[in-house]
Design a protein that fits this description.
This protein is about 20% helix and about 30% strand. It is an alpha+beta fold. The chain has a single domain, classed as 2-Layer Sandwich (Prim-pol fold), CATH 3.30.2250. The strands form two sheets. Strands 8-3-4-2-6-5-9 form a seven-stranded antiparallel sheet, with helices on one face. Strands 1-7 form a two-stranded antiparallel ribbon. A hairpin with a 3-residue loop joins strand 3 and strand 4.
Length: about 140
Amino acid sequence: MSPSEIAEAFPEGANIGLTLEHPMIIIALLAPPGKRLRAERYIQRRPHLATITRYSTSEGVNLVLYCADLPDWANNNLLLSVPASGLRALLLHATSPPHPDILLPPSVGEGGFIYRWTMCGEVPAHNWRTLQDWFHFHALSLGNN
């Protein structure tokens, strides 16, 4: 879409949101403010991640996947990983607390950044073991379980 088509289709303040339902997940790779390209470089250096459907956000990159076998302990827990210095990974799923607002392209994020798809195609499915091998997620207790 051109900038004028985006402006017409999405008036100021209008974004596209996603509500996650099992088995769809989002792995949000989050970089420090002003360093969002760290997330993109991290993915590009890992061929197993570089082909996954994803989009750029104001904080980094969101990977879009299916995982049908999340463990029971993941229910109602925020799953966190620190895959590299200065980079956090959050695994967002149907019962992630607090239920996240997930914006999709061409939504406008912080600082006016327009989310954009950087890898399109079929959303891949991966099992929990594979995701753990890649990211080593652990549950982050928010004190409301």
